[in-house]
Amino acid sequence: MRRLGVPVLVGDIRLPETLEVLHVRRARSVVAAPAFTAAMAGEHVLATVAAGEQVLAVTRLRVAPGCQAEGRTVGELELAAGSRSCSSPMPRAPAGAPSRARSCAAAPSWSGSSPAASSAGSSPGPAPAPTPAANSARGHELPADRASWERLPGPISRRGGTAGVRIESSVTSVSWIPREAIDGMVRLPFELGVAHYDLPPPDHLDDLEGLLERSAVRFANELRAFIEVDDDGRVTGHGHLGRGHMGHTRMRLAGIGLTFWGVSFPDLRGEPEVGDGVVRFTQTAGGQPGMPSPRRVRRRPYLQVRGPVVWSTLALELRADQTAAFEVVGASSFPRHWIYGHDGALQAKTGLIDFDTWYRESFGEKNPWGEQESPAVVTAVETELERELSAIIIGSEPPFRRLRAGEVLVSQGDPGDELYLLFDGVLAVEQDDQQVAEVGPGAILGEMAVLEGGRRTATLRAVTRCRVAAVPGDRVDRAALAEVARGRRDGG
To answer: Going by CATH, does the domain composed of 386-489 fall within 2.60.120.10?
Structure first.
């Protein structure tokens, strides 16, 4: 660590904590820069930093040396607050987190010219419907709701633009352990009630902190960002506002409640990609479960005690036309990750859990902190009715079938009276040898044969490894099945 000899001033307030440098880019530019511009974490307040004195600040933040005359950033420093004592070292990355060339995020960060304080409230727009098919997350964006925005009074650009808008949006992944997601001897504590599976998160994300506090979800990645645009449509500023949230694991042994706090790794953020009227942000968040997990692994050192690494990597694109889009760049193959848009609505989910690979291989360099990402299979969200029926089916303790990729569950024209719940994986729906759709976890399948005389109207083929629950068709209310079938015919 190195200390940077500059003070941080917020208005007339001099703040009492020491900052130390996490990562330096273009150090010569940094040393030569006479001033810096910074955003305070949790308070959208700007600070001016003059060269030549002791480092003072209130919390973690990123400082960018600004070339104000040209209205652009020439380099950047990332700083993090130390303890209350100015002589104390700043917190280091947790044990087990490999070094990483990409910058460790400090929230929030800001780049660009000085924006003025806002005077208007936000006005969120409507969220479009989710995409109808499952997709590999890499290279495919899912639609997000319109971004919140607010009018900024006065000039916000030194390039000649006039008053403009601040556009803010977010995407959040919430990760949880569904029932039957764990294989082998590791599932024994779950079967004995020592550990617990999680109930599905809500359809609308209103209280993330509450879910984490109750151990209802395992961790979350909140990518929140903003851009500032002048009236000519030019991006004049941008920054990160979100962060990762690592939860805890609760267990009960011999009547004694135990809590194991997860170990957060530093959030990873790539350089924002600034284009013509658009900025793309990325963020990786995650860490290790707090509970020790002694196990054999598939490469040296062949034995691990710390838990495997969990993570998700999200991208968020903010546009000058006040719209936004997000992408799931990658994620650990365990647990399940649900994706929520800026309005809190459930937008997408990862479609495949691979517990064994994650448990045996997700350590050391095989994660984003070790320069290795894992692409995720992302699927559209099923209907609210399907989620209700899924809970009923799982609650009946159904038998499960496993399919390999390419294997057929049912064939068009075959007789059948069973109803299926796709628990994990992606299935292709084929009619007359043509694929017409793909479905992911939570989809109710086989309802047409139950409703219309016992003949399968489509072939269901596994695109990935799949687990499917099968129940007699008369176990689910026919009116509910008819509504599911009607929604599919209507494109819902």
So the answer is: yes
